[in-house]
Amino acid sequence: MSYYEDRINEFLNGRAFMTLQAVALVACSLLAYASGRFESIDTGNGVFFSLAANYLIPDARVSLVVNMAALLAIAFSTIVLNKVYNFVRSVTFIGASVFLLLMMANPFVCTQLNAGTVLLLVAVVSMFVMFSTYQRKGTSQRSVYIIFALLSLCCMFQYAFIVLVVTFVVGLLMMRGIDFRGIIAMLLGLATPFWIGLGLGLVDVHTAMLPEIETIWKQLQGNQMQLVIASTAVVAVLAVVLMIANMFTILNYRLQIRVYNSFFLVLTVVAIGMMCIDYRNMMIYVPLLNWCLAIQVAHAFTINNTLTRRYIPVLLLIAGAWAIYVAHIIS
Fold this sequence. Notes:
By secondary structure, the protein is mainly α. Helix content is 71%, strand content 0%. It is built from 14 helices and no strands. The longest helix is centred in the last third of the chain and has 29 residues, at 222-250. The protein is globular and about 65 Å long. The two termini are 39 Å apart. The model has no long low-confidence stretch (mean pLDDT 87).
């Protein structure tokens, strides 16, 4: 019996399960889109523009394809990020697989390009750059500039990226990758997109917009709202529980790996905190929270590699995600 259980564990940890989950994400996104009941949630604006799907990509079908491509790119980038920086301490695909599974479970975030997908994609790309600054205060100015120029550009389209600005400042301090010259590079990065936009006449200070709070509850029916709240709460609780459980092992890793994983802890706390503070726009933070949980699942699965039946919690997670998806479809 243990032979078959080992094969199940290998399958869940491998490329085949991730590929199967990617196919499931595409198929379920297409089905949800075809139902016509899951339009992207309006999540406000940035300083000058908006990240609403109908603003960036008016054609809903193109928006669907772009969003699916972005989610698959995030999953692939998660694998590459771990191969480069080895924060999970094992070659595993289960983190990417679980992320795709969790995104599939919520048709509101997988059927149209939305601010949450873009925010997570930018966060993952920025992590590649930020992790490279570990203990490189004297030579990290270019990396710091790139990160904050990108985040500043995104703030033009969505105010939620200000949260990432603060989070990556904390992250760079944790990496010990920023000094006085780094602070200057950060300020220049934050200013550059606005300088260029104003200098080229692409934006006008008189058209600057304040944050618009568009509550998602106005756009969801009662049963949809309950499903969104319940599923998001479960993901948040699981992320916190696994984060605490994994921490006891991660504390024994070398300092650099501990620092990387401490940043994931910060991201998790930020995602949950912003859902509570900016609850009207909680959908923005759903992909980020899903990704954080996926990382913790990857840790838990690889840390407990001596447990033959570690596949059981993963199968329960899969069953729960599919149950939530089906409930969305039939509600």
